[in-house]
Amino acid sequence: MNCQEELVERLELDPKDPTIPLLIKDIEALAKVDLSTDLALLRGVWELRWSSSTQPWLKQARWLENLQILDPVQQKGLNVLRLTGPLGFLAGIAVEAELSINGLNQVGVKFKNGGWLGPTFGNGWRPTLLTAINQTFPAWLDITALNDSMRICRGNAGTCFVLLKRKDMSVEDWIR
Fold first, then answer.
1. What is the DSSP letter of 119?
2. Residue 56: what pLDDT?
3. Structural domain count of the chain
4. How many CB atoms lie within 10 A of CB 14?
5. Would you tell me which of 46, 55, 126, 141 could form a disulfide with 153, CB atoms 3.0–4.6 Å apart?
6. 52: domain range?
7. CATH of the domain at 31
8. Please, are residues 140 and 156 in contact by the beta-carbon 8 Å criterion?
9. Nearest CA-CA partner of 141 in 102, 112, 111, 95
């Protein structure tokens, strides 16, 4: 089993495993990210599975789904926090963002709107109650490892994130 497979297994079985940070460092040391050729790999619905943050909404929990939807070609991103299970689709907390590619491995993030996101109806319409965000600081993600199923990145505050791609959801379910 290689480091990436081992990391994914530990994220799925025990996201509090103390060896996860070591596996992340090993993977990052071998990874070569170049968004000029790998940009298409960023597109998708990603689920946060591990974070070095102490913030409760950035920690993995079985009862909470923390999604990040990225469409770098349209320069759009969406973070969604919602409950798991049968009622999770009814509502979530969302933050819309404008994305930019700032270098070989950096994605700029400008948060635009945040608030409540309702369920999607049959015609694709989704009720929202979003308000403008006045972001006063630059934000970015350094993508340190990327493939078609896993992404490791570090935010402008130094937080490390590991996300797995959700193959059961599409960008079009979230971003029009």
1. P
2. 65
3. 1
4. 11
5. 141
6. 3-173
7. 2.40.128.280
8. yes
9. 102
